[in-house]
Amino acid sequence: MKRSLLSAGFLALLGFAAVRAEEPKNHDFDVVRDESKVPAYQLPPVLVSSEGDRITTPEEWTNVRRPQVMALFGNLVYGVVPVPETPVRTSYERLRTDGKFMDGLATRKDVRIRFENAKGSAEMTVLVFTPNGAKGPVPAFLQLSFVNTKDDGHDADPSRAGYLRNGLPLAEFLRNGFGLVVLSQGALVRHNEVEFQSGIHPLFYREGQSFPKANEWGVIAAVSWSASRVLDYLGTEPSIDAKRIAAVGHSKMGKATLWAVAQDRRFAMAVAAQSGCAGAALWKRDFGENMEKMVTRFPYWLCRNAWKFSRNEDDLPVDQHMLLACIAPRPIYIASGSEDLWADPRGEYLGAYHASEVYRLLGKKGLDSEASPAVGEVLAGGDVGYHNRAGGHSVELYDWQKFIEFAGRHLKAR
Ligand code: GCU
Q1: Which of 56, 91, 163, 371 is 20 to 30 A from 209 via CA?
Q2: How far apart are alpha carbons 395 and 335 in whole angstroms?
């Protein structure tokens, strides 16, 4: 799959940097949607070090290979968070407590997390829902959400009793003994930011800097960073056990979830639904959305170094199975939608399957078959869970129930 860097797509990309990408109405692009058109590709071996040495022990993985893989993802794909010139101070403020939320099922707390240094300030509001009557601190899901938390609350539609406006079946979490924490992606960085003059980035600029460097954090990495800051806060929240937090996200937020959990080992588990390109799906299959589509439509979701791999995924020294592997030995659940070809269900399965090599090295149970399971079949008996639900790009009650069951097995049994 040799392609010219000077393709029309790449030139278009260079001219694109200054303008805001418009989201097309549909995803009927000229991308591969037919399995027989997937190019021949070779995955970078997850268990061979950059020096060419075979990795055969958990210690070699943890001390040698994993740091190499994380540095590659940081510098070439998502971008690293720079060290700010002046430390960022963080403060928490409880804005509201409602002890009788959802007919008394839950206590809801709205918490403002504020970041500040000499360069400026930014803030996010996080919603914390905990089941009333719990005997002690509960495990919880941290949802990276598209919905602005300021607008969240009960779903107004009576047929959606038990749901939040952001689509989450809150009652289902509570009934199963889980808390739920919600952060909104747009709080610290805009959905398709191209200027980086507001939000969290300016607090981290060095003298004279006004834009992230080529290897510095883009939009997704900033959302991932915010998830870790919420985890810091949860360490101070007595109703929640911060050691039993499953981060969960759909689509773009699935991508942000995986990068957050890979980087921050305090997260106990990751759930990524239809995370697709830059999520669980393999780049080198070039199926559905690919690097060119991603970086032309959303130029800074990743870091600028990722642009080099537009129409040139073969040169990328990592693929997404290696990111999932960096989450091991912690449990991970990947969910696809059978009609969501843009996110490449087969590529998402293969990402999880190839990551399983590392789970096995660490004494955990991964996915054993290279063949994808049938649509609707649930693989949740081990530490790498997967299902491909019939249907398209959404998270349904069915999906949430599978995530909650899987988390129940891993986070409740302790
Ligand atoms: C677009 C984008 C995907 C992303 C999705 C979403 O379709 O191309 O990469 O996952 O938006 O976040 O819903």
Answers
A1: 91
A2: 9
The residue whose C-alpha atom lies closest to atom 13 belonging to ligand 1 is 251
Amino acid occupying residue 50: S
Three-class SS of residue 89? strand
> What 3-state class would DSSP assign to 72?
helix
Element containing residue 346 per DSSP (H, E): helix 345-361
Buried b (16+ CB within 10 A) or exposed e, 59-70: ebbeeebbebbb
More confident residue, 15 or 64: 64
Interstrand relation of 240-250 and 269-273 (parallel, antiparallel or unpaired): parallel
* Residue 350 to residue 290: CA distance in whole angstroms: 16
Strands in 269-273's sheet, in edge-to-edge order, are: 89-100, 106-117, 120-131, 179-184, 138-145, 240-250, 269-273, 332-337, 384-389, 378-379
Q: What is the pLDDT of residues 239-291, one digit of tens each?
A: 999 999 999 999 999 999 999 999 999 999 999 999 999 999 999 999 999 99
- Asked if residues 355 and 46 have their Cβ atoms less than 8 Å apart, the reply is yes
- pLDDT (tens digit, 9 = 90+) per residue, 136-185? 999 999 999 999 887 778 888 888 899 999 899 999 999 999 999 999 99
Q: Which atom of ligand 1 is nearest to the CA of 252?
A: 12
What residues does ligand 1 touch, defined as CB less than 6 Å away? 251-252, 276-277, 289, 342
Active site residues: 251, 393
Per-residue pLDDT reduced to its tens digit, 47-85: 999 999 999 999 999 999 999 999 999 999 999 999 999
State which amino acid sits at residue 2: K
